[in-house]
Amino acid sequence: MIIKLKQDINASQHQSLASLINNLGYKPTYVNTQFGKYLVSIGKKEIDLRKIGFEAGVEDIFRVDDAYKLVSSQWKIGKTVIDLGDDVKLGGNDFQIMVGPCSIEGEEQIASTIAHMKLNGVKIMRGGVFKPRSSPYSFRGHGIDTLKIWSEMAKKEGIKIITEVMQVSQIEEMMPYVDIFQVGARNSQNFNLLDELGKVDKPVMLKRGISGTIEELLQSAEYIFSNGNEKILLCERGIRSYETAYRNTMDINAIAILKDKSHLPVIADPSHGIGVRRYVDKIALASVAAGADGVIMEVHECPEKAVSDGQQTLDYGESAKLIAQLSEIRKIVS
Amino acid sequence: MIIKLKQDINASQHQSLASLINNLGYKPTYVNTQFGKYLVSIGKKEIDLRKIGFEAGVEDIFRVDDAYKLVSSQWKIGKTVIDLGDDVKLGGNDFQIMVGPCSIEGEEQIASTIAHMKLNGVKIMRGGVFKPRSSPYSFRGHGIDTLKIWSEMAKKEGIKIITEVMQVSQIEEMMPYVDIFQVGARNSQNFNLLDELGKVDKPVMLKRGISGTIEELLQSAEYIFSNGNEKILLCERGIRSYETAYRNTMDINAIAILKDKSHLPVIADPSHGIGVRRYVDKIALASVAAGADGVIMEVHECPEKAVSDGQQTLDYGESAKLIAQLSEIRKIVS
Amino acid sequence: MIIKLKQDINASQHQSLASLINNLGYKPTYVNTQFGKYLVSIGKKEIDLRKIGFEAGVEDIFRVDDAYKLVSSQWKIGKTVIDLGDDVKLGGNDFQIMVGPCSIEGEEQIASTIAHMKLNGVKIMRGGVFKPRSSPYSFRGHGIDTLKIWSEMAKKEGIKIITEVMQVSQIEEMMPYVDIFQVGARNSQNFNLLDELGKVDKPVMLKRGISGTIEELLQSAEYIFSNGNEKILLCERGIRSYETAYRNTMDINAIAILKDKSHLPVIADPSHGIGVRRYVDKIALASVAAGADGVIMEVHECPEKAVSDGQQTLDYGESAKLIAQLSEIRKIVS
Amino acid sequence: MIIKLKQDINASQHQSLASLINNLGYKPTYVNTQFGKYLVSIGKKEIDLRKIGFEAGVEDIFRVDDAYKLVSSQWKIGKTVIDLGDDVKLGGNDFQIMVGPCSIEGEEQIASTIAHMKLNGVKIMRGGVFKPRSSPYSFRGHGIDTLKIWSEMAKKEGIKIITEVMQVSQIEEMMPYVDIFQVGARNSQNFNLLDELGKVDKPVMLKRGISGTIEELLQSAEYIFSNGNEKILLCERGIRSYETAYRNTMDINAIAILKDKSHLPVIADPSHGIGVRRYVDKIALASVAAGADGVIMEVHECPEKAVSDGQQTLDYGESAKLIAQLSEIRKIVS
């Protein structure tokens, strides 16, 4: 059950509401976000919602059967639209493409990528400066200084930045330079990191775990929302299966289901999904046909020379062609 | 290595070619289909193809590295187009939709379905008369007599029929009444059945195994082709994964890969794929965006009353709307 | 619901019982095996079992909630023991090891294997003469003539034979020469083959499908039992997962569950399970610790020279050592 | 390549060794643990190891082909034995059982568990005070104060404690009270946490990820070792598969492989593995038969009343019986 509170609810109203909930045998969690105030109440007894609806300080009340609550479409019918400023919006009617290299390699690469983006009307640039790697001996990214340079160059051109945050201690230092924090698949249930990202007023794109269920992804998003941050994007990036003909099994089914179960925007990552350059376009197109609100893809001036993930990275020509096709598909299904 | 033979190759040419192959340390298999004659030769040694190319009786010769040979796109660049007669073609530039109930229930249902098809320009009707069931106590379909009635009604209206064959002994009795034999997921590696279907001149749609790999599907298709039947359709119908939010993980990735690796047409089965009525449309659209040559989907006048699979079956309204959208997507990607 | 009938039930008693069942809204299936007569009745209504228990011709009656019925331990508390003759029994207190090559290669190999078996007290020999292969161009076994020779040599030494049957047409010709028919993983839901194996009085070892569920395995066994053959062995041989460090994920969990859910003996196949020679012993030991009634394993005089599966085959020394350890483990857990 | 350095290597020797490595085109990482000094060198060129072996400051040198290095058995033939003090050792010839509740609930429960342990000769107690939960609204454990009480009670009785650490900020506060830090499945690739646990001199038990590969587990262990901590235990706790008859697919295969590929001790967690109380004993026995150096299992005075995981928890009677059987199996296989 989600109780939407009035913005001007006062302390005594709050108190009396909380005791009412407790007396009904429900456990209340108070949530205060950049957009609203909520009382999430978890319990099993059948109760008469109207009883609560008429209480002072209550704006509205919703029954939510899902295991996740605030991110569920059961209470919020309208779609969440995330505003990155400068008229760059994502979700609902606003479709966005995000392109860029796996790793940010230097100024020349940034400039070249931005030029490609401007030519093709893309407004959000992806790229890693902190890279999670299975082996401790692998390249872990160029770090915060490179992010600062990137941010400066992007801001000049009105380009927004999405990049991965790997640990709590990085949040504050990255904060001024990123427009969207990305949480990687391996951190999809790093609840500590999710808690902290829920306390900042900055969009977070949360990737599905390597073998995460759809419900686990939504519950991880609930961690962020219930800590105070409503600006969440969900990202499907492929799951593990027995098939070895590709890198991951991009789960297009999940896109359709996430769009239905949640009001949050859903982004497709075909580069990590199928993970094979020559098929990335097909999977990107399929994702948008299935309802994705955006596509994030690895693009590099020369994929053969990329320091990482070159095998799943498009060159500028491939990228430009795909961007045009994606828009056409989008028109049909939206 | 595939050696395409001349149609008029004579016995002595054939003999001398076979001994040449054997002497090179390769194992030759002679294949005679409705369209051509081939000598598939398996071996590992590096050999000079031209040596064989100049032999009498040889039309052309191709190196094929794939584990599967005759179904590979490495030797046959053009796409296989399957002609069902009455100008109904499938593959290459020819896109087809197949609709119908899970089980054929009776004349009234057949008539109603055909009417829906005619209204929406659909030319191939699906439906089961022999049903594979996990439990021996479940309904196993209405059998051959129902197929005969169905066939009569369909022929009158120029409608083609696809239905499942489950065992060798059914092939002959079904032969006059079907336009495409369907091999179900559980029989995807029933090599005995595949061998026999390779000996008839009738199209076969082969479904991927419940947890079959893409390579296994192609090797199963190779069984049919190497027994003499080139008219093969491949069908992606979802695989098993850990996710329980849907019935199967429809593997759109496989569609993109099969289209690239093989010259055979690829059909998507979103009904069994995601297996949830309200999402079937999204997955059908995604499949076509990824390159599918056709879509097979369960449609029933009243899904709630279907004797089987109602939960993944569309009604006529949903079907009509989806058929229109599929054509639009197809135009963009073809 | 399973109704155990009296052996001397007469036609009119049978008739009146069937109508009673039908009137209760249940669907009866009459099953007549080499050991008993049963009426399996499927339905959902709550009914008073005593009503039926007092009917003429009824020996006993059992409620079975499982999807499978006759193979369930819910009605048959005692364990099924399969008697192969010459005092070779399997199930309950009788533990058996089965060894032999992947493919039967010739007389010398047979003689050598039998000698190894006699030295180590093993009474059942495995080996393939019909081999299912993913590719139509692979070696498919030496066939029926080799089986005849093998059978003659084995009978002289009191050795029992288990070998794979791949299609209905082979059952009759193999019948005189085998002691246990093996159904391979790819045929685990070849219902046609299961139906026919249910009609012969010969033990059948049914392997779990490549990605078959435990419930599907039991339902496939139900096909055999409900056609008249109670002599069934279940075999765990590994399932498909994302892990690539071994051939299959030998699912020891399934052994524990099958032993609990069914009265049928459970055999472990560690050779196909983990599929790596140096680990076969560990997995064999673990299987017996988890409760397996038997182990089937690939053993060859010289695994490096085996025509197939050499990488997962033990030599005689490894086999002898393992057989001794298996007996010790068995003593602790039985 | 791993270069074992002499303990008294001096700065200039170190310097000249590093430049030699660099000049050979290898990337050196200097590792200083509680037991030794190493130079891990990553590169692809074939080089003559003796060249380096004769350098000043070098004790020994090993070629390691595995992706993981210091945790590989390719360089360290002997098994790692972890000494918890008071003669409680783990690894090599030392087998240990760890029991206790899912969550530490209070003093009475702790006292009761310790009494059960003393009766059965168990020396390590498990229990959670910080619980990772999929939902932000679930019970997250009783926290640090409960750990302090638990630690005091355990120390009095010579009992060692293993408990889960979820985030970097908890390491320091937990340090005085735990004997083994446990890293849960969801944090198996939380590289930040692994880095920090590599900097303390306290054993760490690292669980395999929910769908982690065997190689990923070893690479995660490499994070800990390469940061300076050699005291690592690996834990198999079940993976995700399509099977729903149990909680997770306990992967006994992984135990056999980890024991072979690494010198680190391997612990089995059958409670989370199969996750069904009535089968936990079978899976524990199988794990030890496959070579596990220890078993961690959930035990509670009254599983029906446990605040979490009751469905997979043994009572004292079941635990006592199993502990006795585990020792018998261990004797046979060690």
Record keyword descriptors for this entry:
334 residues; TIM Barrel; elongated; 2 domains; Alpha-Beta Plaits; 14 strands
Describe this structure in words.
Four copies of one chain form a homotetramer. The first copy, chain A, is α/β, with parallel strands linked by helices. Chain A has two domains: 2-62, 2-Layer Sandwich (Alpha-Beta Plaits); 82-333, Alpha-Beta Barrel (TIM Barrel). Chain A contains eleven helices and 14 strands. Chain A has helices spanning 11-23, 49-53, 107-120, 144-156, 168-174, 191-197, 214-226, 252-261, 270-273, 277-289, 316-333; strands at residues 2-5, 27-32, 37-42, 58-62, 82-83, 89-90, 96-100, 124-126, 160-164, 180-183, 204-207, 232-236, 266-268, 294-298. Chain A has an eight-stranded parallel beta barrel, surrounded by five helices. In chain A, strands 2-3-1-4 form a four-stranded antiparallel β-sheet. A two-stranded antiparallel ribbon of chain A has the order 5-6. In chain A, β11, α7 and β12 form a beta-alpha-beta unit. In chain A, α3 (107-120) packs parallel to α4 (144-156), α6 packs across α7 (214-226) and α10 (277-289) packs parallel to α11 (316-333). The two termini of chain A are 31 Å apart. Chains in contact: A-B, A-C, A-D, B-C, B-D, C-D. Chains A and B meet through α8, α10 and α11 of A and α8, α10 and α11 of B.
SSE order of chain A, one letter for each helix or strand: EHEEHEEEEHEHEHEHEHEHEHHEH
The number of helical runs of chain A is: 11
**Strand line-up across the major sheet of chain A:** 7-8-9-10-11-12-13-14
Can you summarize the main beta sheet of chain A?
8 strands, parallel, barrel
How many domains make up the 3D coordinates of chain A?
2
- Distance, first to last CA of chain A: 31 Å
Radius of gyration of chain A: 21 Å
The CATH class name of the largest domain in chain A reads: Alpha Beta
Q: How many beta strands in the DSSP annotation of chain A?
A: 14
Shape of chain A: elongated
How would you name the oligomeric state of the polypeptide chains in this document?
homotetramer
Uncertain stretches of 5 or more adjacent residues of chain A: none
What is CATH's topology name of the largest domain in chain A?
Answer: TIM Barrel
* CATH second-level architecture of the largest domain in chain A: Alpha-Beta Barrel
The CATH superfamily of the largest domain in chain A is identified as Aldolase class I
Helix content of chain A: 25-40%
